[in-house]
Amino acid sequence: MKLSKEGEKMQGQDLCAAENRGVRELGAEKLVGWDEVQQGVVINSFEGDATDIVHKKAEERVYSDFNSYTATVASWRVQKPVFNMDVCIDCQNCWVWCPDSSIISRDKQMLGIDYDHCKGCGVCVEVCPTNPKSLLMFAEYTELETALSGWPEKTKKEEK
Ligand code: SF4
Ligand code: SF4
Asked: Which of 42, 62, 107, 146 has its Cβ near the most Cβ atoms within 10 Å?
């Protein structure tokens, strides 16, 4: 299983990744200009017969090199969300709202962040309803242990 450096540190969770997730850095390859694209070309997202692909789990699909699943944009990020599973209530809000499908969830259980595709927008942190939040933004270089050790306490409601 191929995981990014951050993914490997994710609290020992199996992040449900296929082997070729994030194997190439987007923008590192030679780009083709709009006027160089062959007319009528078909770009397949999957290798082989994809008729029943919707019923396959992400790690079971065979992605083609044209599928963004095989690319990583991790270097675009300056901040990253860190997940604290001790606070999470598996509400799936972050999964619904993430604009880059970078929340990894299986059987309605939040498992972690796909750091190969997360762009650090912070939307998941905004929509997380727990107190304290189960997702917080940290500088990209922050170690997981450092982030978790400084996690804020539950805030009490102010009495009127
Ligand atoms: S920071 Fe943005 S892209 Fe990354 S997991 Fe959260 S919502 Fe998705
Ligand atoms: S929004 Fe927060 S509490 Fe809900 S699943 Fe995501 S991390 Fe967990």
From this structure: 62
